[in-house]
Amino acid sequence: MMEANKLAVDVERIHQLNSLLRPFIKRPSTGDAITFEQYRILHELAGEKISTSELSRRLNVGQSMVSIQISRLLNGGFIQDETLPTDRRYHVFQITPRGRRVEEHVSEVLSGALPDLMTQLGEILK
């Protein structure tokens, strides 16, 4: 019986965490046509040009997921593709001015919201 109660509490905590985090995962801020996964890619590219395989490693996700998000970001004009002159098979991606504006805006929104989010997470995990 004790294990069933603990499981029920844990399931409720997971539900609360999911409800709390969903807005950040689905869309980092209103008005931005990007997902949280796309924001993470833009955030990495804000500092340097990076390949798909390196993005996959840094974000700890599969290359196929990164490739899908890269395609969407390319189509939206948030990033651009560059092939190396020494090896045309090797592609790196860099953020565009439009992508940089969105990344900076979302970072600002998240920075403002994260302290409250962390407080709420702490309450749920008590």
Characterize the structure shown.
Helices cover 67% and strands 12% of the residues. The protein has 126 residues and is mostly helical. The chain has a two-stranded antiparallel ribbon with strand order 1-2. A hairpin with a 2-residue loop joins strand 1 and strand 2. Helix 3 packs across helix 4 (63-75). The two termini are 21 Å apart. The mean pLDDT is 83.
How helical, in percent, are the residues?
A: 55-70%
| Biggest β-sheet description | 2 strands, antiparallel
Approximately what portion of the residues adopt beta-strand conformation?
5-15%
Total of helices: 5
Distance between the termini: 21 Å
Overall 3D form: elongated
Q: Which blocks of ≥5 consecutive residues have pLDDT under 50?
A: none
Oligomer: single chain
Report the strand count. Answer: 2
By helix and strand content, what is the structural category?
mainly alpha
